[in-house]
Specification:
The chain has 348 residues and is of the alpha/beta class. It has 3 domains: 95 residues, Helix Hairpins (Orthogonal Bundle), CATH 1.10.287; 111 residues, NAD(P)-binding Rossmann-like Domain (Rossmann fold), CATH 3.40.50.720; 77 residues, 2-Layer Sandwich (Alpha-Beta Plaits). The protein contains 14 helices and 10 strands. The N terminus is likely disordered.
């Protein structure tokens, strides 16, 4: 899916999740102000602070108990003003509170229903389990690349910062995975901070949808083989990758930065992309020389990955294109699109 076709959720989601209690807090502050004004006024008219507060509450609440002080002209004028201010404020606050309760619940319900409908429409999407610092980075990169993403996290405060559909809950719970559309998903990222939870997510996801591509996060080396045995297609250790990245920048900074730019920067002309070779492709069984991929598309095939998982780097022209191979190519977006059409239909 291209960036131009992706759906954006940010502004709409944030608008629907705006604070519905803002007016209520303002009204409560107004009531506190009226009580403070009434208490101060009656104190000036001769009542002690407790009696002044009591007289204010009974007046504003329209209870109608007896006057605690001498009802002279000043007392009556102040009481009239206090009743007009206080009763009006209480009525307005009650109205706003009821509106907030009704509208807030209704808005939240409608918003959640719409998000659920959005998730049910997704297919082949990526489910990211965990929305910590690593998870947010993964979500941002996927979203910027135009991928459909659903996030799962039990921390609603973390979810408040995402701009893609999400499910609040424990990713180790099968019901939560179902709510995220795991039956229709293409990829699951088990990216929570606990190896045991990632192992459980991997097992659950694989049992629900055997066709999923699962990427699991490992915090320790001991967890990596266990995650693979549990069904993870790829296991990533962020600490190891971070150390390797720093070492690469130290040894070959230009090569490392070029790969970084090619993979992540949108302003570079050339891109790296992987392309699947289906068994129905007209090019299956032909050699690279016979297929004329470079001549017909302009894209350069850097490597082939065989179904066994082995890589063939800088493949020779005599290399045969086999079913279910993955081609790793570099070229402009137009060249890569032409190569993809050639692999699918036999013409660029």
């Amino acid at each position: 899916m291209t960036a131009g076709h992706r759906r954006r959720h940010g502004p709409a989601v944030e608008a629907q999740r705006s604070d519905p209690w803002k007016r209520t807090r303002l009204c409560l502050a107004l009531i506190a102000g009226v009580l403070a004004l009434g208490t101060a006024g009656y104190a000036v008219l001769g009542l002690d602070p407790l009696d002044a507060l009591y007289q204010t509450v009974t007046t504003v609440g329209t209870v109608g108990f007896r006057e605690l002080g001498e009802a002279d002209a000043a007392w009556k004028i102040f009481t009239i003003i206090l009743i007009l201010l206080g009763v009006g404020t209480v009525i307005y606050t009650t109205t706003v509170l009821l509106e907030t309760l009704i509208e807030g619940r209704l808005t939240d319900h409608l918003w959640r229903r719409r998000m659920e409908r959005d998730i049910t429409k997704l297919s082949g999407h990526t489910i990211v389990c965990g929305c910590g610092r690593l998870g947010r980075t993964i979500v941002n990169v996927l979203d910027n690349a135009g991928a459909d993403v659903v996030v799962i996290d039990s921390d609603t405060e973390r979810l408040g910062h995402v701009t893609v559909p999400f499910v609040a809950g424990d990713a180790t719970d099968d019901d939560v995975l179902h709510a995220a559309g795991i039956q229709r998903a293409g990829t699951v990222v088990a990216g929570v901070s606990n190896d045991a939870d990632n192992l459980y997510i991997t097992i659950s996801a694989r049992s629900i949808n055997p066709d999923l591509f699962i990427v699991a996060r490992a915090r320790t080396e001991a967890a990596e083989p266990k995650l693979r045995r549990a069904g993870a297609d790829r296991v990533v250790n962020p600490q190891f990758l971070g150390g390797s990245r720093i070492a690469a920048m130290s040894l070959q900074p230009n090569v490392a930065e070029f790969l970084d730019v090619v993979m992540h920067e949108d302003n570079l002309l050339f891109r790296l992309q992987e392309l699947d070779l289906d068994s129905r492709s007209p090019l299956t069984g032909k050699s690279l020389r016979e297929a004329h991929l470079r001549d017909r598309t302009g894209a350069l095939v850097l490597a082939l990955r065989n179904p066994s998982g082995d890589f063939v780097t800088n493949p020779a022209p005599e290399t045969t294109l086999e079913p279910d191979q993955v081609l790793i190519a570099i070229g402009t977006p137009d060249q890569l699109e032409s190569l993809e059409r050639l692999l699918e239909h036999g013409q660029s």
